[in-house]
Structure formats: structure tokens, C-alpha cells
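Incident log, structure service

09:12 report received: a user says their structure output differs between two submissions of the same chain.
09:20 pulled the input from the user's history:
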Amino acid sequence: MHANKYRLPRRSIQIGTLMLISLIPALGIFRVDLASASFHVLSHQIWWSNFFFISGLAIVVATVPIITYLTVGAVWCGWACPQNLLSEWANNLTYKFLGKRADVRVDGKGMVVAAAKNKVVNWLILGAIFLAASMVLALVPLLLFYPNGEIWDFVTFSASPEMTESMKYAYFFLVLLIFIDIAFVRYFFCDYACFYRMGHILFKTKDALHINYDASRSSDCAKCNYCATSCITAIQPTDIKVADPCIGCGECIDACDRLHEKTGTTGLLRFDIGQKVGDTTWGQKLRVFFSRLNWPIGIIFAYGCALMAWGIATQAPAKTLLSPAQLHKIEFIARTCDSRCSVYASTCKGSNIAGCYRASACECECKAQLDPGNPALGSWQQCSKKFTSLAKVLESRDKH
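09:34 re-ran on a clean worker, output below:
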């Protein structure tokens, strides 16, 4: 018997999931391009107007959680979700610097800090670690919206001011958001703000993978409560209610096994699928697992995957003919000009046509400056002169 048979595999899967989330956009498997209103899927550029791909994506996003609710229960939460990984890490770090029973969460029992560790230096070190982690983690969502080259230029401070303007504000906002989440929010987000968690509560069933307690041996754990003190979400593993936020991490199982290992007996907690209680092989558990699959939902999921594949296959390949360097340049110019001309664009209203002319002139002038070798340079210069002239005429008219 292994006293910690679930902790190491669980931690490996959690870290692996976080790395996978980072690598998917970094390797170009999937990325969102706001400048051109499209997705980049492998070597394909899929427009948001692609009905088949967008419909299939919506179907897949809606059905995958339901399939997991009915089969593996809350295993995603305890074994893969980055939010739970960061919350658990933040809790353990808080215990180390502020005491074994320290609690600084917004949904905790108030500010609970060990008197011997309530020192400024401990708070500063803890805050510095959280801030450093936030600064690194904030780059992950940026990878989903910006090319790798721009992220690298931003990190190495070699990007142009125009390129870093929008990215800088997005990055600082993400750092602040992640810092607040790690430092104070943690499991509060899971319990009250996570849409996946809300759906799990609605679809939760005892037939899905869950932690089962052998009540026939209840006398073996009288006055113990070791599993409850080891529980990440502070519930009672021997009496898990439907509404309890159990994340299926297996920490309580490991705790019970560690205690009973000393006497050569097995623990009273285990993972089970279905309502059957007692010794079952993993083969039997797998059969129960597949019996839990909702085949109509599975068919809808497969239909969504087929729609996505069809959308990719039928997407007009006009943009894919451009080289990665050309695509990068187009995206850079679009973002830079949008940022540079945002002041004029904000004044473009029904009663201020001059502001619209100024915004158009700014866009043309910006493109001419950033891409002087483009064949459309002459048209951009004429565009800038024309709309600047029209704006001046209207502005002088308004003055009189």
C-alpha cells in the first residue's frame, strides 16, 4: 500500500495541464487573433464568420463539461484545474509563512495568523512570491492573443512603444487579477464564480466517480477525524453531501490509508463509480464508467467535432498563403494603428463627423509610416491628405 498514492500523480497532472494550456497557443495549435477577428488553428486561419467552426466549437464547449459531470465527477477540479493548483499552492505557502492554521482568504474565518509569525518580513516575502508568480502566470493568457515574437519582445524590453502600449495595460491588469486571486480569492472563486463548478452542482450524481466511505467499518475511525483535517476544501469525507464542494483530489483517501497502514489494514475511503459498494476491479469500474456515458450527449459532442473539422476543411485559404512573417506584420500594424488612433476614434460620433475623418486620416497615415514599402502607400497618403482636409473644413465651419 502506498501512503500517498494519489498526491504525486495528481500534482504531475496539474502541472502538466498548466504546461499544456501554455503550449497550445505557444506552439500555434490554437490562438485568437483579435486584430483580424479570426482563430489560428494549426496552420489554418479560421474567421469568426465561419458558421460551421463556430457552431461546432460552441457545441463542444457546452457538451464536454456535461460528459465529465456524468462520468468522472469533479476530477477535473481536483486533478487538472490550474485554479485549484494555485489555490492549494497558495494555502501551503501561507501556512509556511503565517502559521499552520493561517487563513487570509476572503471567505475564511477572518484574518487568522499565528502570533509568532505575524511579522512584516513574513508578509513581505509571501507577497513577493505571490507577485513573482503572478508576473509569470500573466504571460500565459497573453500567449493566447499575441504571437510568440511579440511576447518575447515585450519580455525582453525590445518591442516598439506602439506595440507594447496595448499589451502593457493588458499585462498589468492580468498581473493584478492573478495576484488578488492567489493572495485572497482562491477557493472562493471555485465555490461562487466558476461556471464549471456551478454546472457540476446541477448535474452532480453519485453514480459518477466519487469518494466512497465504508460505513460498515465506522468503528475503526471513531474519534479520528484525520481525513477531515487533511481535506483541502474543509468538508467531512465520511459524510459527503451532494452540495459539498468535494473536488475528488484523493487527499482524504491518502490520509486514511496512512493512518491504517500502521496497523496493516486498509483505509475506509476509496474512489468508486456507481452505487455498488465493495471490492470491485478496475475493469468493472471501467464498465460502470462507460455505462454512465450519456450517449445522446456523446453524439452531440461528436457532431460538434465534425462541424469544427468541416469548418477548418472548407475555410477559404486566402490568409494561409501569407508567410508567418507577413501575418505577424499585418497583425502588428493593425494593433499599433488601432492603439495610436484610438483617441480620434473615440470622438467619431454622429454629431462629430470631423472626428471620424480624423480617425480615418490617422489610420492611413499610420499604415504609411509603418509599411512604406507597401504597394498601397500612395493610396494611404492620398487617404490621409483627403480626410485631414475634410476634417479641417468641417472644424472651421463649426467655429463660424
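09:41 both user submissions now match this output. Likely a transient worker issue. Closing.
09:42 reviewer note: The chain has three domains: 7-50+74-200, 209-291, 341-399. The beta strands are 30-33, 38-41, 44-47, 210-213, 269-272.
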